[in-house]
Design a protein that fits this description.
The complex is a heterodimer of chains A (174) and B (121). Chain A has eight helices and no strands. Chain A has helices at residues 2-27, 30-48, 55-80, 83-98, 106-121, 124-135, 140-147, 151-173. In chain A, helix 1 packs antiparallel against helix 2 (30-48), helix 1 (2-27) crosses helix 3 (55-80) and helix 6 crosses helix 7. With 121 residues, chain B is mainly alpha-helical. Classes of the chains: A mainly alpha (174), B mainly alpha (121). The A-B interface holds A 1, 5, 8-9, 12-13, 16-18, 20-21, 30, 34, 37-38, 41-42, 44-47, 49, 111-112, 115-116, 119, 134-135, 162, 165-166, 169-170, 173-174 and B 7-8, 10-12, 14-16, 18-19, 21-24, 26-27, 30, 33-34, 37-38, 40-42, 44-49.
Chain lengths: 174, 121
């Protein structure tokens, strides 16, 4: 039991950073991204702690569901109140504000912002398909399982995301 | 086509490198929060294991309830059949008894009449 706990902790250590960044790009808020990652970890530990081989797939599936839940909740909130829109603006401002550090040069910071902005501009499905395929390195079929959609949809999302990113970043990054 | 692919690959590589740098930075900045999140998750796994058997899960409760209903139904239906069979036998028994009683009475009345006649004579 103790060894299982150690293995699970090790697994969380390997995925936590990337999962956090993926969620942050999707929802545009550090706090919410941390909550999403924590919820995904808790659900994995609670329900699937004995399915060690399936942890990566299950974790990504849960993470995707949590991000979708976040969008649903925000949609419901925004129906009832316009106040939420102001909050979103605050969150986006906060993301921009929290990155600059003295040791980073301006060029590096500009590139970081450019990439983040470009990824955030992508529609959600395209964005997640791109991150799962290109950054995490999952195959088309694995990505389709994680995103709960057809392989053809993954190919389309990924291709469109690549084209759009090339349009947005191509000139400055190449 | 190859140039186009290599441009795409180069772009993706740059994006991945940049994202990896951001992850490294976040791991340092948010180390405490990540640690707290992991601990909560690991503790919740422990909670699940140490959860008592009762209250039983819904499917188990449902299964037990269904079994009880089936058992009651099975036990009740034969008992009804037995009752009706018993009732039928009882009727037959009573009917038979009545006939016997009538036969006995008839014998009695015949005997009585015979006795009365013999006295008169």
């Amino acid at each position: 039991m103790q060894s299982q706990r150690l293995l699970l902790n090790e697994f969380f250590l390997t995925v936590q950073g990337k999962a956090f960044r993926q969620a942050e790009i999707a929802v545009g808020s550090r706090d919410d991204a941390m909550d999403i990652v924590q919820d995904a970890m808790i659900q994995l530990a609670r329900k699937y702690s004995d399915k060690e081989k399936e942890w990566p797939f299950l974790f990504h599936r849960i993470l995707q569901n949590r991000i979708r839940d976040w969008f649903r909740k925000r949609k419901v909130r925004s129906i009832f109140t316009w106040w939420d829109q102001l909050k979103d603006t605050d969150e986006n401002d906060r993301i921009d504000d929290n990155s600059p550090s003295p040791e980073e040069n301006k060029h590096h910071e500009d590139t970081r912002k450019e990439i983040s902005t470009a990824l955030q501009k992508l529609p959600y499905r395209q964005q997640q398909a791109f991150l799962l395929r290109s950054w995490w390195g999952y195959s088309v079929s694995e990505t389709a399982s994680i995103m709960n959609c057809a392989e053809g949809s993954v190919k389309t999302h990924y291709s469109r995301a690549s084209q759009k990113l090339k349009q947005l970043l191509g000139e400055s990054m190449l | 086509m190859t140039d186009k692919n290599s441009i795409n690959q180069n772009l993706k590589k740059r994006i991945n490198q940049q994202l990896d740098k951001e992850v490294d930075k976040a791991e340092i900045e948010l180390a405490e929060q990540f640690s707290a999140a992991r601990q909560r998750a690991l503790n919740s796994a422990h909670e699940r294991r140490s959860r008592p058997l009762w209250p039983a899960p819904a499917w188990l409760t449902g299964a037990v309830a269904t079994l009880l209903i089936l058992a009651t139904a099975v036990l009740l239906i034969p008992s009804r059949q037995m009752n009706s069979e018993h009732f039928d036998s009882l009727v037959v028994f009573i009917e038979n008894d009545d006939i016997e009683m009538l036969e006995n009475e008839l014998e009695f009345y015949i005997w009585l009449e015979t006795e009365e006649l013999s006295e008169k004579s």
